[in-house]
């Protein structure tokens, strides 16, 4: 018996037991005594948390015996602490290469509780590729891994490096860092600041991350889904968001009209493609006057206020034409990263 296959079965069983307990707190669930109770008794069980973050014991202690499958791919379990339950996209068993195992839930009409009925392999927690029921996988049956679980494992393992840019990894030597920033940090936090001494590759890494998210189905970056700007002391709100800009008039005089800045223009492009991810890079952010450049956008770019609930009125809202994408509603950010 392949020991990795047995590890994988234990890992899936723990994952299901964990999120079942987090959701229902049912101590009678089949996997509770084997997987959850020992950690509760030891006082090291954490219901929610990002297993990948430094200092977090969430996955290190709970799945230490089953999480290493070689090739540098360490599995983590993430239960997003910003959500109230486990029935959401913020809960997954995640591999470094961007592939995840998510749970498919079903509501029990009698108990009104949600229970996991199947597991789904997906890329970046979004696009489902393979699904199998708990029964078909033989989870919690106390037996050796069956053929269906072998197939599930084989598919999961075959995804290793399938969405990794090998050339980038060979050239930069920071494939693991790129994966952590792309799959974990930016995906969950939406806004990310890279810090470090000059010349250490912060801008280069940011561009790699942007290309990671902006790839089409052929794994080729789409330029319109990425934009970059460099801040400097004279950069302001009119450059970044919108403002009055000088224009030549037909009578030869100079007038002023409201024009979109680079960020608002980029947001309009993102709004026109709601099914795609967009990445905006700000280089040398510390050189600009943040208050002067962002203005009221500080509110709108907060991850918890993105979308229609984060609507704001910009300083020049009264000059925005009626047919503009942001007319009478202020900045409305799409699902852009």
From TrEMBL:
<feature type="domain" description="ATPase dynein-related AAA">
    <location>
        <begin position="191"/>
        <end position="307"/>
    </location>
</feature>
<dbReference type="Pfam" id="PF07728">
    <property type="entry name" value="AAA_5"/>
</dbReference>
<dbReference type="InterPro" id="IPR027417">
    <property type="entry name" value="P-loop_NTPase"/>
</dbReference>
<protein>
    <submittedName>
        <fullName>AAA family ATPase</fullName>
    </submittedName>
</protein>
<dbReference type="GO" id="GO:0016887">
    <property type="term" value="F:ATP hydrolysis activity"/>
</dbReference>
<dbReference type="InterPro" id="IPR011704">
    <property type="entry name" value="ATPase_dyneun-rel_AAA"/>
</dbReference>
<dbReference type="InterPro" id="IPR052934">
    <property type="entry name" value="Methyl-DNA_Rec/Restrict_Enz"/>
</dbReference>
<dbReference type="GO" id="GO:0005524">
    <property type="term" value="F:ATP binding"/>
</dbReference>
């Amino acid at each position: 018996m392949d020991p990795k296959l047995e590890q994988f079965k234990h890992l899936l069983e723990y994952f299901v037991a964990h999120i079942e307990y987090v959701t229902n707190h049912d101590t009678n669930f089949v996997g509770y005594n084997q997987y959850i109770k020992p950690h509760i008794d030891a006082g090291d069980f954490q219901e929610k948390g990002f297993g990948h973050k430094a200092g977090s014991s969430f996955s290190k202690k709970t799945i230490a015996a089953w999480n290493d499958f070689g090739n540098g791919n360490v599995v983590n379990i993430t239960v997003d602490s910003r959500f109230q339950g486990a029935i959401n996209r913020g809960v997954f068993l995640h591999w470094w290469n961007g592939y995840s195992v998510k749970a498919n839930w079903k509501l029990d009409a009698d108990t009104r509780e949600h229970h996991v009925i199947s597991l789904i392999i997906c890329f970046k927690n979004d696009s489902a590729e393979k699904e199998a029921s708990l029964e078909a996988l033989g989870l919690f049956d106390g037996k050796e891994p069956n053929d269906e679980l072998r197939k599930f494992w084989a598919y999961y393992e075959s995804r290793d490096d399938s969405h990794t840019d090998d050339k980038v990894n060979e050239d930069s030597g920071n494939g693991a860092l790129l994966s952590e920033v792309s799959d974990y940090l930016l995906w969950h936090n939406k806004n990310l600041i890279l810090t470090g001494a000059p010349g250490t590759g912060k801008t280069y890494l940011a561009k790699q991350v942007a290309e990671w998210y902006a790839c089409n189905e052929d794994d080729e970056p789409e330029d319109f889904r990425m934009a970059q700007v460099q801040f400097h002391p004279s950069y302001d709100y009119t450059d970044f968001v919108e403002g009055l800009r000088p224009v030549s008039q037909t009578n030869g005089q100079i007038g002023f009209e409201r024009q979109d800045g680079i960020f608002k223009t980029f947001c309009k492009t993102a709004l026109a493609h709601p099914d795609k991810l967009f990445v905006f890079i700000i280089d040398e952010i510390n050189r600009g006057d943040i208050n002067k450049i962002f203005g009221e956008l500080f509110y709108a770019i907060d991850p918890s206020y993105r979308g229609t609930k984060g609507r704001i009125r910009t300083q020049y809202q009264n000059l925005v034409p009626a047919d503009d994408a942001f007319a009478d509603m202020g900045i409305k950010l799409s699902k852009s990263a």
